[in-house]
Structures are given as C-alpha cells and as structure tokens.
Amino acid sequence: MKNLIWTLILVISSVSVCKAQKVFSVEHENHADVKVFVVDYENQADLKVYKVKYENQAGQNNGKWFFTKFANQAKKKIYFVKYENQSDLKIFFVEYENQAEWKNKSKQHLLY
To answer: Most exposed of 1, 12, 20, 88 (fewest Cβ within 10 Å)?
Structure first.
C-alpha cells in the first residue's frame, strides 16, 4: 500500500512539472517556436513575464517563466528579435510575481 501511495505522489508531481512554462532562448530565429520582443512599457505588452528562479515555481502559461539551460528541457523555444514588427509576442519583464499576466489573451495560444 505504501508503494502505491509513493508511486501516485511521484506521478502527480512529475505531471505538474511537465506543465510548467519552461522556455529556452535560442540563438537563431529559425530554431524558435515563438519570436519575442521586449517592450519598454508594460501597457505595450501582450504578456507580462516574471522570471522565476526555480523550475518548480514556473506557471502554466500565466507569465511565470523558467529559463532552462538546454533546449530539450523547455516546453517552448523563444527567439528575442530586435524589432517589434518581427515578433509574434510582445513581453514586458515585471519585478514581482503577482504582476505576471496576459494582457492580450488572443496570443495565449502561442505558448501552449
């Protein structure tokens, strides 16, 4: 019975980790799933992003991002473009976790 409980705990915890918003910043545009531009002001953003320190703090497509060290660990690969008109998604990095949120929900599908 104890083995069954531990197995269930492991399965549940691994499922929640897989759903985390883990991203990897690629060096070449053609390797990216999403092209991202960082705006200067939060009212210009589609998504306000908070950069978490640990993988288990990442959200489920709610703006809490964990940057992975390797591409195969990430759910999405992103490329930071130089110009706004080249981007699929405009983001603004926020200082506090509770500020992370979608401002333009029509773009939310880009990170699923």
So the answer is: 1
